[in-house]
Give the backbone structure.
Amino acid sequence: VDVLICESTYGVQVHPSRAEREARFTGTVSRVVTGGGRCLIPVFALGRAQELLLILDEFWRANPDLHSIPVYYASRLATKALRVYQTYVNAMN
């Protein structure tokens, strides 16, 4: 390779493990909502938003005290994408 161009915004930083990041995220959300607050989480990428929803879904299922607290997701693009996923759910892994 003579020239390589790559995105490196965080290339020099050492990040916590995924498990640590997820625990910090779910812990923060849990503290806010169990304390009577509301979380607004701006997410600018469809795939990332779906990933966060899956993380929250898993956390909610594992914590019965959160079952009465709804999670809302507002995105027209996500709604359209979800229809595609639901249509072809058997073809996806």
Notes: The helical segments are 18-34, 46-62, 76-87. The longest helix spans residues 18-34. The CA atoms of residues 36 and 63 lie 16 Å apart. The radius of gyration is 17 Å.
